[in-house]
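Support request, priority: normal
Reporter: lab tech (M.K.)
Component: structure prediction queue

Hi team, I submitted a job for Carboxylic ester hydrolase from Aspergillus aculeatus yesterday, and the status page still shows it as pending. I've pasted the exact input below so you can check whether something in the sequence is tripping the parser. The sequence length should be 500 residues. Please let me know if I need to resubmit or if it's stuck on your end.
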Amino acid sequence: MNLTCSPSAIQSPSVFGAEILNLSAAWVTNYTRTIPATFNYNHGDVELRNAEFCNITVTYTHPGYDDRITVETWLPRHGWNGRLQATGGGGWQAGRFVLSQFFMGGAIGEGYAATTTDAGLGDAVFPATWALKSPGNVDYAALHNLGSRSLNDQAVIGKGLIRSFYGRDPDYSYWSGCSQGGRQGLMLAQRYPTAYDGIAASAPAQSWTKFVSAVYYPLLMREWREVSPLACELNFLTAEAIAHCDPKDGVVDGIISNLTACDYSPYTSVNQTFHCSTLNRTIALSEGAAIIADAAWSGPRTRDGKFLWYGVNPGSDISSYGSVPGQKSTQADVWFNLFVAKNASFETNKMTRAEYERAFHLASQEYTDFMDAADPDLSEFRKAGGKLITYHGMADPSIPTKDTEFYYNAVTDLFPDVQEFYRFFEAPGLGHCSGGVGGQPITTFDALRQWVENGTAPETLPVEYAGSDGAKQSRILCPYPAQAKYIGGDASSAESFRCV
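Reply from support: The job had stalled in the queue. We restarted it manually and it finished. Here are the results:
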């Protein structure tokens, strides 16, 4: 195929409600990169060697909104598999950020055309540079672009560029993302149900307004209860929780797999002695450490004990809520001060409990429509034949697994046949998107493609990880609410487990 990579040869895409400002195109040659699975969520390791692709960058605006959004698309010169893979962002970034080089490179290495968007936020890692147009005035247009509007634009632009470059539409189009990228994937399924045939939306931050507000609860609890636990104390409590709850699934492997049976209380370990490595001496666990661990695990509550939102699971790394002698804490607020108080000088750590409860509700009232992707009505996505897969680490220290359980259960209430189009896999011991002590499901995207193109729904996802003794452990992840149950035999073999 005689492919031409130049602005004069590529037709500018047409996006309803948008004006194209600029289109640049240039060949990238001899592109070589190692893409590890830990930075290639939903996929495995990819070795990209001497790749050649057309890098097309489109800049556009929504007239009247004073925005400037960039979509970057990579179109392989050789070996294109006829499919588009759109990639998402992380944290406060919609995409086109530091990890996009891995996401896009991995997609190219597997034969896909790839696309990403910055949602008009440029290279800002945090919203301090764009959240406020002036004190008291949030840039709602920028937040709208991050939340949802740029997502459909990205799909339209990516498909349009493929059509112009290759002379035909992609056979299938997919979305792949985790965290912010997972939230984006669910938002696409809810608001733009025909944008993609298949969506891999892992560790999704779909309840954005609630989980971001909930993150501050253990930090504020330190102030309210006037305690200052050490990070080593919280690490000790995590290890105690694992030791207590690990055997309850029938296999001792250093991972909590059956959280419903986990009944460990951090208060039972108060005054127990242990070696604190940062102090290089033995100390007794403080009651303050138990208070903060309990706050992290229970999630925020009102003063009279009413539920506000979920906490993280025991076994998650909660050491960031503790201090390390000689190290200054770097915890900074960009949510309550910029978006709720709308004042960059607002001191979140001085909020009273009543002020926090009020701010929690105000955040949801004002920003749910912008950022939350928790609408369970997936009827249009289901009608369009879309397929959706999510995995979520049960030791995720950032976004509680129960967030995704809550959403999946809400979808199930509406659609008893939910597993015909949406499957959710909980991953014991896995951290946020990757990391932790459990296995990362690296075949998620392949399973999604098989489901979309061949109708083969994934009954399990395989994972591997190093056990507490360093030996390889093979396991299966099961579609929620099923769990992998040990049925006997070699506990290191996936063949010894069944979904029940």
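The longest strand covers residues 19-35. Residues 89 and 95 are 4 Å apart (CA to CA). Let us know if anything else looks off. Ticket resolved.
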